[in-house]
Amino acid sequence: MRVNFLSKGSDALHILSERSIPSSEGAPKWSNKMLDLRNPHQQTTKIGFKKKCDFYQCGMLKYNGVADFHSYHELLHALLLESDPDVTRFVPQPFRLPWRQNGYVPDCYIARGSQRLIVEIKPEGKFPKERGEWVSRFCRPHGIDYLEITNEFLMAREVKARNWFWIVSYLRAWKDFDSTNQIKQLYEQLVDADAIELGSLIPYYKDKEQTLDLLALFRMAHRGQCELELNYSSLNPDTIVRLVNAS
Length: 247
Hints:
Layout: E1 13-15, H1 47-52, E2 56-59, E3 66-69, H2 72-83, E4 87-92, E5 108-112, E6 115-122, H3 129-139, E7 144-150, H4 151-155, H5 158-173, H6 180-190, E8 196-197, H7 198-201, H8 212-223, E9 226-228, E10 240-243
Parallel strand pairs: 6-7
Antiparallel strand pairs: 1-7, 2-3, 4-5, 5-6, 8-10, 9-10
Helix pairs in contact: 2-5, 6-8
């Protein structure tokens, strides 16, 4: 199974295999006739739980609305989804599955091409094995795979995620502005260059100056038309920019 923002083979990613799932033991008897797993909606977070957990709210682009996150790691995960052009949509706290008496709300639902995923995010070694096996078995007939991602895996990508927090905020703030001409100009500059520094691509870039050129660049990055090297340092004039799949 391929997920762009996750390193292939990482032991921080656990994809439960068919062999690990019991055939019937532990399955709840609830009816799921009214549960539409293909049409998820963010579940309301109760006030008491907001106070109990490490709660964050943030406007996103691939989720239509204000997203609720029950931990800083869930927020980082969503920002990494924003950076993956193959992800078209995600929904935090997407539905309540009929697990035991109180049910279970996964941390995130992801649409990535034809692939559908639900994700649980926890510290390494803290994933409930029995529940994970049941969720995987329950969702498979609906064409949905179950993934477990560790907090430690996400913290290792914190710099990239925080950079994308700024990019997403910028794109949301300037969403009504047209940057068609600027995108064309940037493409023409990038098409003949293997890599170029942001300060050379946009010479008057200074202290994240709000310009249509930056808006165009961020839109290209969000669409997967160009790449910004954001893994190890904050966005700055030395940030390397590359065109993706130039033809």
